[in-house]
């Protein structure tokens, strides 16, 4: 049972445009969400997170939006740069400070120069 | 730089031959995790240590064991690897839950091949 779903295995975006990566979850107990970025031959690295008490969190070019009623979150990257080409994983945990994360299957983002 | 190190990066073993993967960290984090990731799948938590307290996931096969001799090191032992255990194994660390941080720091992974 996949509790965190990333339904798009891949996404291609023109450099300079906005990249939107989506994530859905089924477990209503999740209330803290994270995005990780993974380059080939490296481990995932933390990108940005959001708590359920917020609906938006922004960090430079990266913004995460959370829609609790729809159990949906999205990561916006604007403007997209070639270095953003990577696999992006969505992850969720039952509460802030809980050490267990449930990951999605990832979306491979390719930025076209 | 503080980091999570995994050795070896690539490991080849034979069917049924025990293998040990290692992870070390210089972050001084209380919590260490082992994940298994198969191709095109989500990383799947096998177990984690909160300090010396071992927490096994309910669906982790008995074939997988772990040791954490001290804060810095954690080992994953696969007692009798099967072909289905071929995967990337990721080690991660995090601060303790009292700090309120969920962020996990990952090593580069060990890719295990079972012949």
Provide keyphrases for this structure.
heterodimer; A: 113 residues; mainly beta; 5-stranded antiparallel beta sheet; B: 115 residues; 4-stranded antiparallel beta sheet; 11 strands; 0% helix; 50% strand; globular
- Can you summarize the main beta sheet of chain B? 7 strands, mixed
- The number of helices of chain A is 0
The tally of beta strands of chain A, per DSSP, is: 11
Return residue spans of chain B where pLDDT drops below 50 for at least 5 consecutive residues.
none
Taken from the alpha-carbon principal axes, the silhouette of chain B is globular
Main sheet specs of chain A: 6 strands, mixed
**Helix content estimate of chain A:** under 10%
Q: Label the structural class of chain A.
A: mainly beta
Rg of chain B (C-alpha, Å): 14 Å
Give me the number of helical elements of chain B.
Answer: 0
C-alpha-based Rg of chain A, rounded: 13 Å
How are the elements arranged and paired?
The complex is a heterodimer of chains A (113) and B (115).
Chain A: E1 4-5, E2 10-14, E3 19-25, E4 32-38, E5 45-51, E6 56-59, E7 62-67, E8 72-77, E9 86-93, E10 102-103, E11 107-112
Parallel strand pairs in A: 2-11
Antiparallel strand pairs in A: 1-3, 3-8, 4-5, 4-9, 6-7, 7-8, 9-10, 9-11
Chain B: E1 4-7, E2 10-13, E3 19-25, E4 31-37, E5 44-50, E6 53-56, E7 64-67, E8 73-78, E9 87-94, E10 105-106, E11 110-114
Parallel strand pairs in B: 2-11
Antiparallel strand pairs in B: 1-3, 3-8, 4-5, 4-9, 5-6, 7-8, 9-10, 9-11
């Amino acid at each position: 049972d996949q509790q965190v779903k990333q339904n798009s295995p891949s996404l291609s975006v023109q450099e300079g445009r906005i990249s939107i990566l989506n994530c859905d979850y089924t477990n209503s107990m999740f209330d803290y969400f994270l995005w990780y970025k993974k380059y080939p031959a490296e481990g995932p690295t933390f990108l940005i997170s959001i708590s359920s008490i917020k609906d938006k969190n922004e960090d430079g070019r990266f913004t995460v939006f959370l829609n609790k009623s729809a159990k949906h979150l999205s990561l916006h990257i604007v403007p997209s740069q070639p270095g953003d080409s990577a696999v992006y994983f969505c992850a969720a945990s039952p509460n802030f400070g809980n050490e267990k994360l449930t990951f999605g299957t990832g979306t491979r983002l390719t930025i076209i120069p | 730089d503080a980091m999570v190190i995994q050795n070896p990066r690539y490991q080849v073993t034979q069917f049924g031959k025990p293998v040990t993967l290692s992870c070390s960290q210089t972050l001084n984090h209380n919590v260490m995790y082992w994940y298994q990731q198969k191709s095109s799948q989500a990383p799947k938590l096998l177990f984690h240590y909160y300090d010396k307290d071992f927490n096994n996931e309910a669906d982790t096969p008995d074939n997988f064991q772990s040791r954490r001799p001290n804060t810095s090191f954690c080992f994953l032992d696969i007692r009798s690897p099967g072909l289905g255990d071929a995967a990337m194994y990721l080690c991660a660390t995090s601060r303790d839950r009292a700090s309120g941080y969920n962020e996990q720091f990952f090593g580069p992974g060990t890719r295990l091949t079972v012949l």
